[in-house]
Please model this.
Amino acid sequence: MARDERRRKTEHLGKVRFFGSVVGADSFREDVIAGLSLPEKALSPKYFYDAEGSRLFEAICRLKEYYPTRCELALTGAHIEDIARFAGDGCQLIEYGSGESLKTRLLIRRLRPSAYVPVDISEPALQAAAKRLARAYPWLNILSVAGDFMQPLKLPVYRARSPERLVIYFPGSTIGNLTPDEAHAFLRMSRGQIGRRGAMLVGVDLKKDANVLHAAYNDSKGVTAAFNLNLLVRINRQLGADFDLKRFAHYAFYNVAEGRIEMHLVSLAQQTVNVGLHRFRFDVGESIHTENSCKYSVEEFKTLALAGGFRTDRVWKDSRGYFALFGLSAA
Ligand code: SAH
Ligand code: AVI
Model:
């Protein structure tokens, strides 16, 4: 972790250790003000995940329309032996954007990693997941890191007798929430972290019928809308802003040219919003762009991975070809 970041061990729980350097209130304020000052207002999706945001995301994963979680769980279960052969038993498993570490359970059971290093920006989600995992797998060394995976994090190392193979797990198509440039930088950083002998497992949502995509991000119960709007609730609470939630609406659509779902919060009125001493004007229909969720073809993702320093060794897909898990090694 960068020297100026506060590093602390927060708690011991059996074989769990917590390390923290979460994004501070100052960065959040600066990023929100910078984002709302852009000609096309935008906020980073990493700010969705406060305690309520993580809870809402977990509810999204259980919706009938949101296929990615079920597809990735199914393909991981179906191909677990082959995935394990690729990853190697007893490796050290690092997971970025681990959330509730749901799919990871399949890997933990089969690989029996020497240590599991979940990294997430949402401290509440991270702590709850680590505690559940510690109960389910008392033998597992968990080094839990609250931090931003886009920053160069110096991760804690589990001191094993011999140098171990590092495997980075990045499921859920969280890589799709990065722009292709950010994904490239992230892959380069990961390649540096795992060295020549390591490997990476990346879950990627594939291009498909736009109607299926549209339904997944416009669910009938309105959970995705609540997830999107919760960003404004968080800004009101943490930054003393006065967003009127009745005057913003969730809007998600598939941008074919860019190959991505875009989520926006659209202003339903001409209005002014205060964030501390800063005032922001909204026209009717003007939006805050809150998330991209990029969809790739297998070939597109292989090209991105190669540019990031990785060779694609394996591609596992679910039965409908909706979702893929890529097994990557140093190119
Ligand atoms: N891996 C889980 C969760 C995916 S949701 C799954 O496959 O279901 C995305 C997760 O990444 C959330 O838990 C969120 O808190 C985390 N996250 C998003 N941006 C992040 C960032 N910049 N740094 C660290 N974690 C981040
Ligand atoms: C975490 N991430 C991959 C989800 C996605 O599908 O892009 C976040 C999400 N946004 C709306 N629904 C789910």
